[in-house]
Amino acid sequence: MVTRRKNVFGCAANFLRGKKCVWCGSFKVNKTTRGYVKCRLCHKQKSLKMIRTEIGIVTGFYQQQPAYRLANDLGMDYQTVTRVYQKLRLSLYYIAELEGAKLSGEVEMDESYFGGRRKGKRGRGAAGKSIVFGLLERDGRVYTRVVEGVSADDLMTVIRKKTRKGSVYYSDTFKSYNSLKRLGKHLTVNHSKDMVSKKTKNHINGIEGFWSFAKHILYNYRGVSKYHFPMYLKEVEYRFNHRQENLFKLLLSVYFGYVSH
Ligand SMILES: [Zn+2]
User: Fold this and answer.
1) Span from the CA of 44 to the centroid of ligand 1 (angstroms)
2) Which of 6, 35, 101, 169 is the residue whose CA sits 20 to 30 A from 201?
3) How much distance in Å is there from the Cα of 38 to the middle of ligand 1?
4) Which CATH architecture has domain 106-236?
């Protein structure tokens, strides 16, 4: 199911030629003399020039090009590109938050700290950083949430809401996870000793892998404020959960489904 890289942009070809409706996917489109593309099915219309520009912006977003650089490449206003990026990100935020059933089966969890200057561990030194709690279903999706703190209450609320009872839970030995055994089987790995517990072979490599994925992507967005961070985080979550699919195609449908009218 892995899409080959060279085919990623192929899905836009008929949109760019004005042969396919960007909103409903129908081929029943007319080109008007004014350079508009008009859909006979959903009755929406837009200038082909505008459609091409918008697809250009989605392409830049997909490639994580900085807004100023894309604006420069497309000969556009920086603010316009930024606004589209923000709207896309906001749409992804809601979609990521809504999609998918509760995680189940084998579920790994961990907390991580993003942003801020100081290196910090749980609690102490974490000031200025965003605390992220992550849940990952093995061979499945990841779910992330910016949390206020890492108390048992903070974390268990998310776990109860986002995982199915009776799952097998993997975590480190942090005390906030102590009551997990009431929800399902709880297996731990002692982080301070090994990444993989030698004796039990328990690990949380899946969620650790997600943290590196996230940090790699968020490096492009360094300097994001704490206020905007949750939206960037959900974008990463969306990219991760759809990494085996044609993400560009998905972003196009998100854009024309929720952002562009
Ligand atoms: Zn249409």
Assistant:
1) 6
2) 101
3) 8
4) 2-Layer Sandwich (3.30)
